[in-house]
Sequence to fold (199 residues):
Amino acid sequence: FEVALANGEKISSAGHCKGVCMTMQGVPLKIDIYLLPLEGIDAILGVQWLSTLGPILWDFSKLQTLFNIDSKEVVLQGLKIPASKLVDEVQFSNELKKEKKVILLQINALTLTTQSSNLVSNDYHGAINKDLGYLLPCYADFFKEPQGLPPQKIHDHQIPLKDGSQPISVRPYCYPHYQKTEIDKMVVDLLKSGVIRPS
Fold:
């Protein structure tokens, strides 16, 4: 069967596994599982399984689900995302020794303060390397926000198209649901800068 995703795409199930025994937060479960080509998710507790539980109490402020299995009360706790923090190399190494799973996100922001508002001024202050402060104004054009497509070059590469050919119809790539917001933001930024256009 087909499943419609939040982005409108439909994906097909590759199979059906009956009576799969699994443990979720220490709770033993036996459920039927449909295989779907999703990324970033281990399992989705679908309506077929939820409908077998009877009354369910949801508490979204605590990210909890409460229900009964075999007359026993069960509480599933949702993951609480920890606040982002800036760590140095030593802290990072210590965290890595505690647990071998990490997500590394590095964001660098350079704040330049100049005597004048002119970007080509050589007088940089603040926490920035002197050599870098000298090079940045020399190559200021490279750091400007792009507007539109790249300029014409001596040789522009192109893809030769056959006369009368139609666009190739391919399914869009699947992407994890948690990346949707960031992808939408990137598309909006690219549209504003003129690098892409609606098609």
